[in-house]
């Protein structure tokens, strides 16, 4: 398994991205990747506010693989403070940029909610900092045992 | 709008900062920026514990722009585990370093609370990792439509 | 105290690490550090899902130093979406790599819980991005006043 569970990458370009009120974060990140030619990247930081957030959690006690009946989907109206957006852009087996993002949101009461992000709309502002990853031999595709899309790292020869 | 919604930046210096018990995190970050000459930076990581946290949320159902009656301010005594500090330092229109930080805190029960940070005092320790951003044509100032201070990116000519 | 509260570091190698279902995240990070010779590092991003999470919070109203009776330990079964893993690997006074990690988890309901991480097992996947820190004169050891293991930065001569 040497080389199959971790891999070194090089830093490429660094970007600051401003997503405007009414725009959708995931849609915008994919549009950004297409315009700039970024293939793989990591979200270093994200702050702002969002509304109409569609995300999911895993049902308590669920078994692997994660199938739709084992997930709980949420539609949250907000607006919310955007406390964090954690994740990456990695190409899938068709060479298309695919995002894996988890979101953290603060309610008016201060309580924090979040999960695996499907989509969120920007409320007042969204400031994203992103670093391009230069790397070969990594792609995201479906894991049969896990049930989700996840990273696969080629073994070194 | 080409060039106006994202911009490339270069990495400058990287720092590890230790904020001591009783010190205030935002105050200390601004003091740090003055002492080192850092103009723009991103918080890469922050762990530790805090108390006397002043932060805000956005009221559910609020409209833009975010005005004080549409926010909910919180004063939380703690102490809390500091789970994350997400955000950046970007100069404002007067060339002064201004911070935009969102905080995530764990209560004794394990519940997580957080929001837009005004100030927090360090309890037992605070370990911050920060990367300086070298970039021109970016500043933070008030957004009339959003109601908040946010980043503006000059359009490329 | 000049030089004692912050220090510049250089970036070393960057890694993507995939922790497999059933493996333990902290154990795996320490094994990774041994295999690659990484002495100090920062977690830039972590997404995935976990179960059997052992973590702690600080009791409300607790005084310094943080002693075991002033903490609240939690064992959470899950599985949970892993929303974030914030923290660093820094060598202790014996030159052994020691981790300081805080975790954020989403319950099925969307509520977020978290705290200072002891250990967590990967459920379906875990994608970690890590940057090696090249730095001298920093180590983690026990703080008498704080009660916890924290970073100490040598003063510049």
Automatic annotation (TrEMBL), chains A, B, C:
Pfam families: PCC (PF03479). Residues 9-154 form the PPC domain. It comes from the Bacteria. InterPro entries: PPC_dom. This is PPC domain-containing protein. The lineage of its organism: Bacteria, Pseudomonadati, Thermodesulfobacteriota, Desulfuromonadia, Desulfuromonadales.
């Amino acid at each position: 398994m040497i080389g199959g569970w971790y891999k070194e990458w090089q830093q490429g370009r660094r970007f600051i991205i401003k997503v405007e009120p009414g725009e959708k974060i995931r849609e915008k990140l994919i549009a950004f990747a297409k315009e700039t030619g970024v293939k793989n990247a990591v979200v270093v930081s994200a702050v702002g506010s969002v509304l109409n957030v569609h995300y999911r959690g895993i049902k308590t006690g669920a078994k692997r693989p994660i199938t739709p009946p084992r997930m709980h989907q949420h539609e949250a109206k907000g607006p919310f403070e955007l406390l964090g957006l954690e994740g990456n852009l990695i190409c899938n087996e068709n060479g298309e940029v695919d995002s894996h993002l988890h979101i953290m949101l603060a309610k008016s009461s201060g309580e924090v909610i979040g999960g695996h992000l499907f989509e969120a709309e920007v409320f007042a502002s969204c400031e994203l900092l992103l670093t391009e990853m230069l790397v070969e031999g990594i792609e995201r595709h479906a894991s049969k045992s896990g049930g989700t899309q996840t990273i696969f790292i080629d073994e070194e020869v």
